[in-house]
Amino acid sequence: MIFCPDCRSENEHNAPFCLSCGYRFNGEGRKKREGDTLPEGQRNIKRRESQKADLARTQKQNAIQIGKKQRDKETLEEKSPLIEVDESEDGKTFPFIFVVLSLIALVTGLFVFGAFDDEKVELNESKNEVIQIPTGKLLTGLSGEARALFIHACERTKKEGESCEEEVFLAGEIEESERIVEAFRIDKYEVSNLEYQRCVDAGRCGVFEQCQIFTHEGKQFGNHPPKILLNPQHPAVCISQKEASKYCNYKGGQLPSKNEFLRAGREKDRRVFPWGNHWDPTLSNWGERDMIGTPVLGKIDGFGFTSPQGSFPEGCSTFSVCDLSGNLSEWGRKEDGSSVYFSGSWVDSPFDQRLTKERMASKGRTDVGFRCIYH
Ligand SMILES: [Ca+2]
After folding, report:
1. Which residue, 306, 299, 302, 292, is CA-closest to 347?
2. Measured in angstroms, how far is the CA atom of residue 351 from the centroid of ligand 1?
3. Where are the beta strands (DSSP E) in 201-296?
4. Which positions ≥6 away from 138 have C-beta within 8 Å?
5. 18, 51, 192, 232: least buried by Cβ within 10 Å?
6. Per-residue b/e over 161-189, b at no fewer than 16 CB within 10 Å?
7. How far apart are CA 320 and CA 300, in angstroms?
8. How far apart are the CA of 343 and the centre of ligand 1, in A?
9. For 258, which DSSP code?
10. Model pTM greater than 0.90?
11. Could you list which residues have their CB under 5 Å from ion ligand 1?
12. CB-CB contact of 228 with 87 (8 Å)
């Protein structure tokens, strides 16, 4: 446990911020390093430059280790499970390979993900099903308490000497109001790569030609996503908002509006997350970071990349709609035709996992997926 120095409440030792008052832990009791107190979700460019220098210094040693492991694999293959890329492990062993290969790529200029292009993806059955949402009242917007918490966290960040623009931090938030949302049905899970492939096979959906690669370290150079993101059971990535809409039309539906997305996640109250108002780092696949903002892939929620459908049953909404927060953000539709996406993903901070979070984009990327609704 860790005590919040602001309000003295108890928090889990790995909590990125205080659940009671929003204080963002920055490694109290530890000697601060430059850039230790970045705002949630922002990237530390200076630290990354430093990391690159560190990587260059250790490259020679890692290359030696890789060579040794490769020799071990060739001679003792069945005794070397650590260096196997096992998709069934969903990232638990892949990050090791990813890191090691990235070290080589940084020095040689090769793009590591392209190396996996020729590997065959095994197809399995999809777990998705459709959930009925009855006509009912929706409470839109953030509650006063939640908004105050977020603003307090933003103010705290500014006191630590860093920028936090409330209009950016709270971008996409809509006014508190009540309205009736007509009945609809919605996919229980985000559409998987397998489900999307069936639409491609039917000649109704396109294969992505470009993909913006977003990871815990921000936007990356290249056009090839890590192969584990293309696992059949994982949610479909690199699908543009337009192609996602085409998929939903093919299925007889459409992308959800903000109100439909919120209705599926909130039912009858103004909760922040599908499971309630308090952040729980174990109930969704989010962009895990430790107390000083360093990525800790898979250490808290168990997944370093996206996760298969149904991996967080306790994080589903009261309607049993799952992964509305976490795993991938999700494309939505707007009446004015603008392209938006909701909530947060496997690369995002806790604050961005709220159901009401709304951002604008349109191109296929590795942190945005989708699900469909049907009337
Ligand atoms: Ca994660």
Report:
1. 306
2. 15
3. 213-215, 218-220
4. 178, 179, 180, 181, 259, 262, 263, 266
5. 51
6. eeebeeeebbeebeeeeeeebeebbbbbb
7. 23
8. 15
9. H
10. no
11. 285, 288, 301, 303, 346
12. yes
Q: Is the pLDDT of residue 37 over 70?
A: no
Distance 327 CA to ligand 1 centre (A): 8
Structure tokens of 55? 């990587």
| Region at 343 (left for phi over 0; alpha for psi -120 to 50; beta for the rest) | left
Tokens standing for 330? 């999700």
Going from the Cα of 179 to the center of ligand 1, the distance in angstroms, rounded, reads 34
CA distances, 158 to each of 113, 154, 332 (Å): 37, 6, 32
> Roughly what angle, to the nearest 10 degrees, separates helices 241-250 and 193-201?
70
Tokens (6 digits) for 146: 């939640």
- Looking up tokens 């109704």 gives 204
18: its two tokens: 């205080």
The identity of residue 4, as a single letter, is C
Region class of 163: left (phi > 0), else alpha (psi between -120 and 50), else beta:
beta
Using the predicted structure, report yes or no on whether residue 35 has a pLDDT greater than 80. Answer: no
103's CB contacts (< 8 A; 6+ apart) are: 55, 58, 59, 62, 63
pLDDT band at residue 54 using 50, 70 and 90 as cut-offs? very low
CA of 302 to the centre of ligand 1 (A): 6
pLDDT tens for each residue of 315-366: 999 999 999 999 999 999 999 999 999 999 999 988 899 999 999 999 999 9
